[in-house]
Design a protein that fits this description.
single chain, about 90 residues, five-stranded antiparallel β-sheet, two-stranded antiparallel ribbon, globular
Amino acid sequence: MISIEEFEEIYNLIPGEPEFELWFDEDGPTYMIIKYADCATFQRCGNGPRGSGEFEYPSLDALLSAPRRIESSQELESYSRHHRIGQLVP
């Protein structure tokens, strides 16, 4: 596992438009953060109702500071910068 701080460092070092696949629970869904020149996006991976579509944020910091939708049918829950990322696949 890596910390959010370690992820931020990797995110800032990798050029271009990398896609980072990650998960917070080994049995849970996977998520993707995509780095663009002018924004960062977050989405739950999957087809149909399992996927969430991309949520766009002006920066990685804004993404990490914002509430996030876990399931399309659930209410927003706060994202803690203290979560640890189980796996990172750039």
